[in-house]
Amino acid sequence: xxxxxxxxxxxxxxxxxxxxxxxxxxxxxxxxxxxxxxxxxxxxxxxxxxxxxxxxxxxxxxxxxxxxxxxxxxxxxxxxxxxxxxxxxxxxxxxxxxxxxxxxxxxxxxxxxxxxxxxxxxxxxxxxxxxxxxxxxxxxxxxxxxxxxxxxxxxxxxxxxxxxxxxxxxxxxxxxxxxxxxxxxxxxxxxxxxxxxxxxxxxxxxxxxxxxxxxxxxxxxxxxxxxxxxxxxxxxxxxxxxxxxxxxxxxxxxxxxxxxxxxxxxxxxxxxxxxxxxxxxxxxxxxxxxxxxxxxxxxxxxxxxxxxxxxxxxxxxxxxxxxxxxxxxxxxxxxxxxxxxxxxxxxxxxxxxxxxxxxxxxxxxxxxxxxxxxxxxxxxxxxxxxxxxxxxxxxxxxxxxxxxxxxxxxxxxxxxxxxxxxxxxxxxxxxxxxxxxx
Length: 438
Hints:
The chain is of the alpha+beta class and 438 residues long. The protein folds into three domains: 3-203, 3-Layer(aba) Sandwich (Rossmann fold); 215-237 and 240-305, no CATH class; 314-431, Phenylalanyl-trna Synthetase, Chain B, domain 3 (Phenylalanyl-tRNA Synthetase, Chain B, domain 3). It is built from twelve helices and 21 strands. The protein has helices at residues 3-14, 29-40, 57-72, 91-109, 121-133, 159-169, 185-201, 205-233, 255-262, 269-276, 379-385, 390-393, and strands at residues 21-24, 45-51, 77-81, 114-116, 146-147, 150-151, 234-237, 240-244, 286-288, 292-297, 300-305, 314-316, 327-332, 346-349, 357-361, 367-368, 377-378, 397-401, 404-408, 412-413, 426-431. It has a six-stranded mixed beta sheet with strand order 3-2-1-4-6-5, sandwiched between helices. A five-stranded antiparallel beta sheet has the order 7-8-11-10-9. Strands 12-15-18-19-20 form a five-stranded antiparallel beta sheet, with no helix packed on it. A hairpin with a 2-residue loop joins strand 7 (234-237) and strand 8 (240-244). Helix 5 (121-133) packs across helix 7 (185-201), helix 5 (121-133) packs across helix 8 (205-233) and helix 9 crosses helix 10.
């Protein structure tokens, strides 16, 4: 396998030539090999490294090693030191959060197209088992190569091939001794459990990749079908959502649609389990989430906002940090073809936007010019065409600029402000915080 050729092919599938990237590098075997490969493939990149200061002098040596490699190979290296405190409790979650935050800051600062990570097939398999053992029902297929802004070009490459490549190159890297400690769950699985499972059941790398792809496809269909069903059983009237329990087939558990309906409204798994026993609940019994209140009314559940005083309109003065209504903004200097068709990030031509803008709930009777259309449609009709569940319609907000709807956030950008080939500045908007799986 020619890894340089494979790498070029993977990047060309998603990004235009000349795009620049942020490569996360720990100094270990996997990330250092990826740095070498990207250098040989002439893919422009900066290195990002987080010094967690957890191993004293060894952590500083990791940083010095990476900085020296960058200087030797004319690659810019960005480093940050962070300090762990006992208040954080879960050290791995803390490190993951610090790493993600720093990488995403650099992504915006350097106007890069993506953050590159050196995950491989073994990481993919370990992540699946970790999610399974945490009883994570949703999204337990593992990882995907491209979940903006993270790109994993080696995700379907076996660890054995990476090890062989490093050995054949006689390549220098830093070994983190903590990677051998089984006190961490991932290492316990990596060193003691997964090798035994793979050997006993004859699990190949190809089977792992095929399973992950099939599982991801199934999850996408399950999500679509569930929200289509919710659109049939949940109605929205005067800010009160109503779930009709009698419309759920008696031979199917009520807990699953309730989970999909109520989790976005802040209800916990324990609360949803209790609510699922609807026949045993008293009429009028109320259960509260941090943002909503639910009560039983005969054969239905009704939900409304707990706090009716929440402001409905927010004023936005720049394309950055829309941490209102759970949205975040980014700015790119030039349009990137990799973003086209990506519904995770809405893309607007900044030159067509006038600030201040507003984020607010959509209104009945309001019209919108969808992407690719010259005419306008009612937002209510458009949401129905998109199959948006009635339970979710009240949560939909729009971005308004100069008294025109520029986007229905999370769904579509208006045609009048879409990006085109001549666009010089792009405003990217996506859910906050950015969803990713490391």
